[in-house]
Amino acid sequence: EEQLVQSGAAVKKPGESLKISCQGSGHTFSNYWIGWVRQTPGKGLEWMGSIYPNDSDMRYSPSFEEEVIISVDKSTSTAYLQWLSLKASDTAIYYCARATGGMDVWGKGTMVTVSS
Amino acid sequence: EIVLTQSPVTLSVSPGERATLSCRASQSVGSNLAWYQQKPGQAPRLLIYGVSTRATGVPARFSGSGSGTEFTLTISSLQSEDFAVYYCQQFNSWPRYTFGQGTKLEIK
Predict the structure, then answer these.
(1) Residue from B41, B37, B33, B85 nearest B62 by CA
(2) From first to last of its 116 residues, what are the pLDDT tens digits of chain A?
(3) Which of A37, A85, B2, B13 sits 20 to 30 Å CA-CA off B94?
């Protein structure tokens, strides 16, 4: 069964760094774009960007380009989403998902809470 | 940026009845539109891609239609498990694959 397994919830303070992960199994991870989606109560679902594990080609939504870093380790079939300096407004659930014609396989989400 | 506007925000329908959800794009997205269902505490689930193609395992009571800027998700006979929030997403404007704000389908 195709799965994306995400890392657990994180609680951080403003200004701290964080890297969350998304590991694929049951499919050829490298051959599909992996996207990251943010969900907040106020703004719903937001596409953040995506990466193609086979060659690490990455594309960011302009809204997130300066805010996060997307990366991948092909050898472990793991994609990452990283912040260098978190803000309270980064509090949200973050999903990774495989992007084909739609986003057909989703991780369960990682809850990130940023609070002083 | 392409803005997707879903209507209505909330739709109240009785089990067994038909539900029709709309998604309007601020500019043409061709046939690059998908629909998702999300239940509380769960990740979204892909229902429809390419406007009208059902994803694997999606019941036939779900259907999608439309083109250009106007799209519709129809659920022909609502089952109890269909009450959820539904989102549309466009895949036409790379790299900003925007979502609609969602329609909450509730039991009448």
Answers:
(1) B37
(2) 889 999 999 999 999 999 999 999 877 888 899 999 999 977 789 999 999 999 999 999 989 999 999 999 999 999 999 999 999 999 999 999 999 879 999 999 999 999 99
(3) A85
